[in-house]
Amino acid sequence: MDRRKAEAAIEAILFAMGDSVETARLAAAIDQDVETTEKLLRHMADQYRTQERGIELTELDGAWQLCTKKELYEYLIRVAKQPRKVVLTDVVMETLSIIAYKQPVTKMEIEKIRGVKSDHAVNRLVEYNLIREVGRLDAPGRPILFGTTEDFLRHFGMRSLEDLPEIDVVQMEDFKAEAEEEAGAEAKVDV
Question: Which residue, of 29, 51, 99, 185, is most buried by count of CB atoms within 10 Å of its CB?
Fold first, then answer.
């Protein structure tokens, strides 16, 4: 199969699927090896990026998806009903950060880190499709393990979890000291 026909086949698959498709599955569909398919996908992504097109080819953790370019959403909204805007409160964002960095993680582990119940925040994140159940812990009660989704990657403009910012150890120590001070001040007020 020549390059143009292979790229057309990939484009047709991604358009029809709507969701992301793993590179290996695309390679099998066009009878190519993964390395060749990866090169084709990168070439296609570059073409979409450099041409005045309404869509782009986005990589999401080893899978690929055709998406509307963000700068063109306003035109899409004029035709379609405006998508519900996800508002991430500080509590929800804190919970999401814990899940992103610690995954897979149970609700109990999240609550231990946060120091408060996290049912509402976890439920919101599931509702927004930013996290999902990724399994169950092999422990009494078999608690649910949570991890992030492709929508999480898409929402924050990352290709994979490796794109998460590095945690600054010094800043973490400052946050820890600040939290301990606040906890101490609250304990004195309660007395």
Answer: 99
Asked if 136 contacts 143 with a C-beta cutoff of 8 angstroms, the reply is: yes
CA separation for the pair 11, 7 (Å, rounded): 6
The pTM for the full model equals: 0.58
